[in-house]
């Protein structure tokens, strides 16, 4: 703020402030600390200093000019609008650097149940893969296949005979399968972080709906179109089904997409992904699509992200459409 001059009493200072505000210039008037008989006039924006100084010079000469009257009600409306906008900004402001930990405080049973199921399936399947000799490795893989086979969306390369014969659980159960300890740990850390935020803020039913919808869609599309790299995006209709897909990654990306959109579109709901989280998740998505990471569930990742973005953005745009 810049001090542009003084006025002899409070009434004139308030009158001048109302006049300038009606002209679109914000000023602050306050009693002088060195001379209680004078009121200082401060201009908030440097762009308005010269104009405000010229207006003050005219006002000092002829404060009885009719143009300085009847500005009080207009100025009051402008101040009320500014106050309303300020309150909305405060309600919508979210500091994602400190809000994450606060959001995770509360009951989140579904998040822990999902983590427990993944760990149980991993313990049952990964524990039988050991053995150093070829015969031991073969036996371990046979045992591993026996554990995960009933959970895969299909064990056939064409069609979905198991599901068509009533084994509908196969549409969702692949999310509980993990093919290594690192695969499990990576997904469980993100599931805990993102799932906790959603369950605490929006409830277990919202989290369950998001997990089920994203799990089924990501599993099904990963089975039909197992995209391995960017080139496959342009010929996905020629890809062959692959039954060997599993992991919570598609669901994790859906949770991320949901929280990301909520933070951008409805920050007053106190959910949001920090810039570093957004960067990590999107960079990892691109790295996996590059093909350097080997066999990765890229289709599940992308599908989950799209589902989460739709879940997170739809309420906002639905309300805007309603208006």
Which key features would you list for this structure?
2 domains; Rhomboid-like fold; 323 residues; mainly alpha
Kindly describe this structure:
The protein is built from 12 helices and 3 strands. The protein is mainly alpha-helical and 323 residues long. The protein has a 3-stranded antiparallel β-sheet, covered by helices on one side. Strand 2 and strand 3 form a beta hairpin. The chain is rod-shaped, with a radius of gyration of 31 Å. The mean pLDDT is 86.
Short structural description:
The chain is built from twelve helices and three strands, in the order E-H-E-E-H-H-H-H-H-H-H-H-H-H-H. With 323 residues, the protein is mainly alpha-helical.
Helix content: 55-70%
Report strand order across the widest sheet.
Answer: 1-3-2
Mean pLDDT across the residues is: 86
First and last CA, distance: 39 Å
Total beta-strand segments: 3
- SSE string, helix = H, strand = E? EHEEHHHHHHHHHHH
Just name the CATH architecture of the largest domain: Up-down Bundle
Radius of gyration: 31 Å
**C-alpha geometry:** rod-shaped
Whole-number tally of structural domains: 2
What is the SS-derived class?
mainly alpha
Q: Would you give the CATH topology of the largest domain?
A: Rhomboid-like fold
The share of residues in extended strands comes to under 5%
Q: What is the helix tally? A: 12
CATH H-tier superfamily of the largest domain: Rhomboid-like
**Uncertain ranges:** none
Major sheet characteristics: 3 strands, antiparallel
């Amino acid at each position: 703020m810049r001090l542009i001059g003084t006025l002899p009493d409070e009434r004139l200072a308030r009158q001048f402030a109302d006049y300038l505000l009606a002209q679109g210039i914000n000023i602050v008037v306050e009693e002088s600390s060195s001379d209680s008989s004078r009121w200082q006039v401060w201009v908030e924006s440097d762009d308005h200093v010269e104009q405000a100084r010229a207006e003050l010079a005219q006002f000092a000469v002829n404060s009885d000019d009719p143009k300085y009257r009847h500005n009080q009600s207009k100025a009051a409306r402008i101040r009320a609008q500014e106050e309303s906008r300020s309150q909305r900004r405060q309600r919508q402001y979210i500091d994602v650097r400190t809000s994450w930990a606060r959001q995770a405080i509360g009951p989140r049973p579904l998040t822990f149940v999902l983590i427990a199921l993944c760990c149980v399936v991993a313990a049952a399947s990964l524990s039988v893969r050991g053995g150093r000799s070829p015969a031991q490795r073969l036996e371990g893989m046979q045992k591993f296949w026996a554990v995960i086979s009933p959970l895969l969306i299909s064990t056939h390369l064409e069609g979905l005979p198991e599901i068509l014969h009533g084994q509908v659980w196969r549409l969702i159960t692949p999310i509980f399968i993990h093919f290594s300890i690192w695969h499990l740990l990576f997904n469980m850390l993100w599931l805990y972080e993102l799932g906790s935020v959603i369950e605490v803020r929006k409830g277990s039913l919202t989290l369950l709906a998001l997990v089920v919808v994203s799990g089924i869609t990501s599993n099904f599309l990963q089975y039909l179109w197992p995209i391995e790299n960017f080139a496959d995006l342009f010929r996905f209709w020629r890809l062959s089904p692959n039954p060997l897909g599993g992991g919570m990654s598609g669901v994790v990306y859906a949770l991320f997409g949901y929280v990301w959109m909520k933070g951008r579109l409805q920050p007053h709901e106190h959910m949001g992904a920090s810039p570093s989280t957004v960067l990590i998740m999107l960079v990892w998505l691109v790295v996996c699509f590059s093909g350097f990471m080997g066999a990765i569930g890229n289709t599940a990742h992308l599908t989950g992200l799209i589902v989460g973005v739709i879940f997170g953005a739809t309420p906002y745009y639905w309300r805007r459409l309603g208006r």
